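Hi W.,

Here's what went into the run:
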Amino acid sequence: MPFIPHTQDDVRAMLDAIGAGDPECLFDEIPAELRGVSLDGVPAGLTEQAVARLMRERAARDAGALCFIGAGAYRHHIPAAVWELTTRGEFYSAYTPYQAEASQGTLQLLYEYQTMMTGLTGMDVSNASLYDGASALAEAILMAIRANRKAKTSRVLVAGTLHPIYRQVAEAIVGAQDIRLETLDIPVRNGALDVQRAGEPGEAAAVVLPQPNFYGRLEQIDALTDLAHRAGALVIAVVNPTALALLKPPGDWGQRGADIVCGEGQPLGIPLSSGGPYFGFLCARQAFVRQMPGRIIGRTVDMDGKQGFTLTLQAREQHIRRSKATSNICTNQGLMVTAATIYLALLGPEGLRRVAAVCHGNTRRLCELLCAIDGVEPVHDGPFFHERALRLPRPAADVLTRLAEHGVQGGYDLGRHDDSMADCILVCATEVVTEEDMQQYAGLLRTVLEEMGA
Amino acid sequence: MRDDPLIFDQSQPGRRALAQAPLHAPAVDDIPDELLRREPPGLPEVSELQVVRHYTRLSQKNFSIDTQFYPLGSCTMKYNPRGSNALAMLPGFLDRHPWAPELHSQGVMACLYELQEILARVTGMAGVSLTPMAGAQGEFAGVAMIRAYHEARGDRARTEILVPDAAHGTNPATAVMCGYTVHEIPTGADGDVDLEALRQALGPQTAGIMLTNPSTLGVFERRITEMARLVHEAGGLLYYDGANLNAILGKVRPGDMGFDVIHMNLHKTFSTPHGGGGPGSGAIGVGERLLPYMPVPVVAKEADSYRWLTEADLPRSIGRLSAFMGNIGVVLRAYVYARMLGREGMARVAEFATLNANYLMHRLRDAGFQVWFRDRRASHEFIISLKREQKELGVSAMDFAKRLLDYGFHAPTTYFPLLVPECLLIEPTETETQEELDGFVEAMVSIREEAARDPDYVRGAPYTLPVRRLDEVRAAKRLDLKWTPPGAGDGETEA
Amino acid sequence: MSNTPSDLYYAATHEWARLDEDGLVTVGITDHAQESLGDLVFVETPELDKAVEAGDACAVVESVKAASDIYAPVGGQIVDANARLQDEPELVNSDPYGEGWIMRIRPDDPDDIERLMRADDYEHMIEQEEEG
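Here's what came out:
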């Protein structure tokens, strides 16, 4: 049997040691009517060679398209060293670092990760990661309600320009505790919040602000942050980590800075991989550290006074606090964070800045090429980062289907969330896209629209 | 043992891995100044070789399944096949964007669909959703579905979830996250749930019960069918925590025991890597009546093609738990593993996991260690208590655990379950050889001899690891959670 | 052997209580409790002015491996909390009946304290717990 090392002699000797006649005896405490299940319908076992053949065929079937989609997941160059190191057995097949002495590698790496994330976001503390960006937002909301003791409300206001899927996920998770999310009452104009026309938001525990927002637009983040703080709310920033190489870090937003920062870590060396595993990051001000969910690593000393790393503040967590824990979360996304830490070390501040600048430049170039086609135009004016909404002269879903038939994934269909945008797509061109790729897309789009009679 | 300075302490201004970033970058002249950052982010500036050497050296400071026997109870640390990793990391899978059209996704969707089917069969459930990103999220999904079910029937009086006192901490934490209060049910002296206490706890306020079977005490809940009947008669539903599914895989199905919803830890039973603490994957399975509430998306097969079922297909779904569709990379590893095992292999998992656990339990008992439930069969794991050693030799379960590290074994789970004093929860898994188990017994015996000779020596362990025991009180009181540049203070904050 | 002063009152959840001359009840955790928790790393002191009933959880003490709720031994209003514990949680370990006090309650009924255990009963309870 695969992966079971026992010889027949082993089995005999072990059963003798136990004093059991046959392996079935070991299950004699299980009621007989429950035993002896049928596994009909489960296919017969295959060798690695046979499964490899099957998987190669399937992987090949999905490969080869030219991708201009972003909308929450971004294709970036991943240095070869990142996953060569990450899949070393010592990282790959270790458990959560409960036995600190036997986990110093993972623990030191996570401490370095926490430092990098606080550097990117301009915040005081970081946890060791959560599942993904959207679930991290849900945890950030729960955290803000715990942390904002002054607010006598659990109202949470969400910018209308937040990624709609993030909102759905947050609602599914916090809704179970009867916390309702309300849309921040600020009109959306030109794809961004029109803070000049904002009323006073009323008392709230937290306000969720994305930067860049779902449409790639940059919000007037200083004014929005100050507005939220005036209402007594904590500011939860939802940010893209690549963008932070260029953009003002949340710790510097407005007069006081954001209070909690979360987002999707995937752009930092994690393959697209159909949407996961990724990791969510969560940073905060020092004052809220005890309200954070998830693992946190601290530096300390051993019995001989030597530096070492360990899980700390564990009394917040489910295995100790049970029903009073800050969250039910157990793991972080350790392996993904391993990759992200190595990625950030390889890129450094200058490398990451160049990646961000090239992504942004490529998206500008792509929009220029596409908007040269009759009937294609930007939906919004104003500053954006590495992603942009375009209006097409034909329904987006139909155009995207035709493009896909020719091997181009032309963007994200904005009609999925907003009927008034059924002719709009969100496009993104990262640093891995070349001028030829963009020319190919523009040429194909021109042809497809002509075929569709536009 | 050598010291490895933090990557930040190796940084030199202007140094970088030149091959890894674009050679040129355009000016960013279309974003207003007030939206831009003024200082570069605090990231290290190092060469590619420095990075590779640093993280290779750090990796060598970890224990792992690939390097050590890792009998961590309740965690199922079995071999993670390299084939699963290699085949889940084929470029076609890695490069697929989560929003790629179904037309460009039939390969991965075929794998997901078939795994849904395999998991449904092997657990006896009617439907499976692969979206939860970890066991705890699977738990959340399960309890949220129970809540959605009751609410859809207009039954809002059910405000309470029952949890045995021996349960994992996630169970009560999850129930609270789903808006329920928790009622703990005591465990009898034989390790089974106290049935009388259960009867008394059940009522119109009972939304459901969360159970692990075999329980966290390493024994099978013998009266499970009776319990299921009682809970169902009271109008509650049964949730199965799949933490210990490895003990029964291919042998007994949660669906046959009467469970309405289950989660599976694919990172345990289906041998995807633990990765130093994630990513996991917490697929859920449901019986007929909870099918409409499954988290989306789910894969459906229509004729010869696959498509995503979303909110439009399952309007009563509890919704989305991740931005996309969960940890597909992990799910693919589980799929490869399931295909390599096949039905014959799957039926052997529980058998050999149980054989190894019972063998190790008997060897330790014969060596004079106190097995906690000595009249019970072990499931895939079992508990020994070192209460006597603690009393007579002054050496605790934690001391044994730390000294085991010096012997080259990862420690079993310590001090869980909370009900057993000075306990070790030991789970050898099916992929270990008899010789490895014998080596572990010898180490335990040898540590006890050391403790009799020189208890202080054992209390001072470990000696051969990168660090000795750490000052966790200092770590919690003088929080040092990030590196700070020299001259910017020592980074510590009084808690 | 832990210290159990005979002039104090005790709750089954290991708090001690003392009725002071100003009519307030001072509350802390017992020597036995601090010993079993180990070195405290954090104390979450109660919210001031809050009205509590006997048995309400109102503060938390944390060690590295455990967190434990502190329950109000009598009903009333919380009027004071030991601010020093924010920076010096170790006071609870070093002086549980003195500088390590946790909160002061203005009792709804000063006689309520009589419902708590006296030192002998509390010591007896601990012995039984340890045997069990």
